[in-house]
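Ligand-bound model needed. pyroglutamic acid.
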Amino acid sequence: MNMQWAVVVLAGVLAQPCLAQQVARWQLATGYRVDSFHTQNIVQFAGDVEQATAGALRIEVRPNNTLFKLAEIRQAVQEGKVEAGEAIMTSMVGEIPIAGADAIPFVVHSYSDARRLWNLQRPLIEKHFAARGLKPLYVVPWPPQGLFTSQPVNSGADFRGTRMRTYNQSTVRIAEMLGASPVDVPMVEVNQALASRKVDSMITSAVTGVENRVWDQIGFYYGINAWFPKNIVFVNVKAFDALPAPSQEAVNQAAARAEARGWAQSEAVANESTQELQRRGIKVGRVPVSFEAELKRLGEKFSREWVKSVGTEANLIFVPYYLQR
Ligand code: PCA
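Prediction:
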């Protein structure tokens, strides 16, 4: 074999998994659309893993609730029905109450607060995940949660008798506290729910408003910065342990890069989408000062209820969180 051929053959061997090596395939289920920034980040993560393992691990992303519905994904991964998944942490509070720490109103005010909270919450989440045979890979926050309404609002009383879209227990409790009827609507059905007048308001991020093109029904977006919920990407431990060590390392490294990339993207889309809402004719602003105070009190009531129901683990996070300030 001349030198040139040797190089071509060698390059071929390096680019593909060696014949004796098994190719592992994972499916990764998510409840969000393929074009959402979270899913795009997962697609890039899967691509990074495939490249770093020279194809020895292929991760097939299954978006939009196609494999399992968002609320069922953690259980499905836990039971080994699918190898990996992504879900919003607050959807897990029924089983893992501490996962609700990132949907407590008015505790986290910025991305750096969100990072600080995650550093404190992470060991507890890892512990609860490990107990269920799950391994967290990375988390990425949604942009801050604001208030979308079809009519201008001046006080909590404006919500009485109206319908508020909800996506987790926090939003349900807030709707109740405001005297609105909570209406559970998955993220990918928000546009439809607004068009058929099933909801009058919602608390979510500007990017979710843009993705659902809410401007036909929604007139107002108030940047109340209520909380920064996080999505978590995770894998069944058995599926992870079945990988050879170099593939495990590749997954861990790609996950660390996806986490850094995702946090930066979240911050960038937070600004871009708020501007886009404005360009589309939505009035973007702040709630009146008196309503802001009312919301704060409501947040404090929520926190008290939450700490009481969660107990010790809540203190493990929030005592150091406030001391570090
Ligand atoms: N969008 C998702 C969760 C948080 C967010 O900003 C939703 O509205 O369901």
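Residues 23-97+108-141+229-275 form a domain with the D-Maltodextrin-Binding Protein; domain 2 fold (CATH 3.40.190.170).
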